[in-house]
User: Which sequence fits this backbone?
DNA sequence: CGGGCAATGTACCAACCAGTACATTGCCTG
DNA sequence: CAGGCAATGTACTGGTTGGTACATTGCCCG
């Protein structure tokens, strides 16, 4: 049964504002984003931004929180339980790569938030220690590999997660400057397979005990 | 002989504007930066920004060009000729780490430029293929290691440079969000030695032939 | 040493932009 | 079905901000 297209729908209005705001903030940064532009791209008006989110900053906070929530959701879908530690770790790294490439808006929001030294993020309670689940997954695979004697024992999960994140975030976040400096396009489809395999290789050969 | 403090000094005025603008743009981003604030932090007035740089964007372009020029200068100081390929590569990675930690303003400018999809950078002729020198250094060490049989032969200099850059840039560029998500401070001095050694370990164990 | 121009300062403007006062309308509940 | 409130629209504002018109001043060169 399709819902009748109501003229008034608080949920839809709020959701639409949030979706458009995510786009605009991610395109232009916090200061660069225009409240009027966000409203214009919506079926509603600027007035509603103030009604639902209090103001530009409140809207940005909601965008940030929602974006992180979405990422956490996506992370939950990952399961490497049936693989051996070596292949599991490779899968982890390469899936993280895919994941980042598929969520460029989110990476851009994170970059923007870092420009502002994380001052907004710090005020969102639900984001505290949000990284834990992702790191637990790494830790699990790492521990399994250590027990089986295939991984070296002197590396922490945090370090592994850091190396993987750094590589995958950089791909997206710095694609324009890095690409220009070296005359290569990190986002070009023909490079994807190689770049994807690269982080797998790096992590596996780093962790493999010899 | 100390120069007399002249009241008028085109060179000094221009340089001061550029230095302050670098700070302000790096602190607040392109849209967030205020022309008036830049002028206020200077011994001169806003008028001079338009006199020397044409406008806000011209000033930003000059900041970007100058920042990249400074980095290229710094890179030239690096010499790993007397070291064996293994130690040279480690030195390369760890020095890059030091270098990025020491030039956070620059990393922030790069992040800002990426938010704007590199549209300003593309218009600066002197930045075309500026990455070449840095990559040549990596290539040299890599080739030496391959010849001596200590490095694997299936990795390109570009890939190595990418992995190192990604890790080092991430440390600085994402310190706020990553630090908050995991309750760790990437910039804390007590973590520096470990984080520095980490990228050395990763690169060396990745490249080492077994 | 004085004319002329580079360099600088002051005061101002018009557009922009986040935010709001006030009116209105549709939907749900009793 | 009607009354009340959540939800929405319109029109406006005051401060901000990039940019400029016009005046002035100090330095260098002939």
Assistant:
């Amino acid at each position: 049964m399709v819902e009748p297209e109501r003229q008034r729908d608080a949920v839809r209005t709020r959701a639409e504002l949030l979706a458009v705001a995510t786009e605009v903030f991610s395109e232009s940064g916090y200061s660069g984003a225009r409240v009027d532009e966000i409203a214009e791209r919506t079926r509603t008006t600027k007035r509603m931004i103030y009604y639902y989110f209090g103001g530009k900053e409140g809207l940005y906070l909601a965008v940030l929180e929602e974006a992180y929530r979405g990422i956490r959701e996506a992370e939950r879908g990952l399961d490497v339980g049936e693989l051996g530690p070596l292949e599991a770790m490779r899968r982890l790294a390469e899936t993280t790569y895919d994941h980042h490439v598929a969520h460029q808006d989110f990476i851009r929001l994170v970059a923007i938030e870092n420009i502002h030294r994380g001052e907004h993020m710090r005020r969102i309670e639900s984001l505290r220690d949000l990284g834990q689940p992702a790191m637990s997954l790494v830790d699990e695979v790492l521990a399994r590999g250590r027990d089986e004697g295939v991984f070296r024992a002197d590396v922490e999960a945090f370090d592994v997660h850091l190396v993987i994140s750094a590589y995958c975030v950089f791909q997206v976040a710095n694609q324009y400057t890095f690409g220009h400096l070296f005359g290569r396009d990190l986002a070009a489809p023909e490079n994807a397979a190689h770049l994807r395999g690269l982080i797998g290789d790096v992590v596996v050969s780093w962790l493999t005990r010899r």
The CA atoms of residues 86 and 205 of chain B lie 9 Å apart. Chain B is about 70% helix and 0% strand.
